[in-house]
Amino acid sequence: MRTKKQELISDSLKPLVSRIIKENREKYNYSLEDLAKALNYQKNRQTLHKYETGKLNIPYDILLQICNIFNIDTDSFKEVPLSKEEQQTIEKKIIKEYVTNLRKEKNLTPQNEKIINTYKNAAYEPQTNKSELYIKALDDSMMPVYLKNDKLYFQKQEDYKNGDDIIIAVKNNVLSVRRLYRYPKGIILQALNPKYPTINVNVISNDMILGKVVSIYREIK
């Protein structure tokens, strides 16, 4: 299938990219066949040769995979003046490739990737040999237990009990922690700081709860 033009690097970037690919391939003693194999044969050696000699414009996705293989710093692309549109495209592709590598190397599930992409204060950081998600507390609603800017690591549970500190979307695109209490007609999501209102909910499913706080990281100043 033919690659769309907007998925290819520009002509202005092509000479620099061609040089970087060739220099790093030779630096690591890779043949074109070796590189094709490292890319799981998404592109054959003939096509890679055309990218390297500037006869074809390489797709951003393939370029960033090559950067990952050879540990190439993507800041190298800044040597060439780029349009604002291409700068934004590269930045988006770099983020996508970074998250994809996290999912492969650190067992980051598609569901966890979705959480990171959806909520602006959610992030990933390996705390053990298992994937760990955390939110950054953006307010003091759970003082004195959790402070603003604390990192709150959480994990999905099969069930949640009274008194669990759960991660839930209180506002659009932002995750918060609240203490969970169930009662016959619904649940209470309690903020420990009395300045913040207690939320009463008639119905809530476990799918709406993204996880339970399992650990905390706080910078001591």
Describe the overall structure:
The protein is an alpha+beta fold and 221 residues long. The protein has 2 domains: 5-105, 434 Repressor (Amino-terminal Domain), CATH 1.10.260; 120-217, Umud Fragment, subunit A (Ribbon), CATH 2.10.109. The chain contains 6 helices and 8 strands. The chain has helices at 14-27, 32-38, 45-52, 60-70, 84-105, 110-118; strands at 122-124, 133-136, 151-155, 165-171, 174-183, 186-190, 199-201, 211-217. A hairpin with an 8-residue loop joins strand 1 (122-124) and strand 2.
List keywords for this structure.
single chain, alpha+beta, 434 Repressor (Amino-terminal Domain), Umud Fragment, subunit A, 2 domains, 6 helices, 8 strands, 32% helix, 20% strand
Kindly summarize this structure in a few lines.
The protein is of the alpha+beta class and 221 residues long. It contains 6 helices and 8 strands; from the N terminus they run H-H-H-H-H-H-E-E-E-E-E-E-E-E.
Spell out the helices and strands N to C: HHHHHHEEEEEEEE
**Strand-residue fraction?**
15-25%
Computed Rg: 23 Å
- Straight-line distance between termini: 55 Å
User: Spans with pLDDT under 50 lasting ≥5 residues?
Assistant: none
| Main sheet attributes: strand count, strand direction, barrel closure | 8 strands, antiparallel
Structural class: alpha+beta
Compute the number of helices.
6
- How is the CATH topology of the largest domain named? 434 Repressor (Amino-terminal Domain)
Helical amount = 25-40%
Q: What is the overall pLDDT average?
A: 82
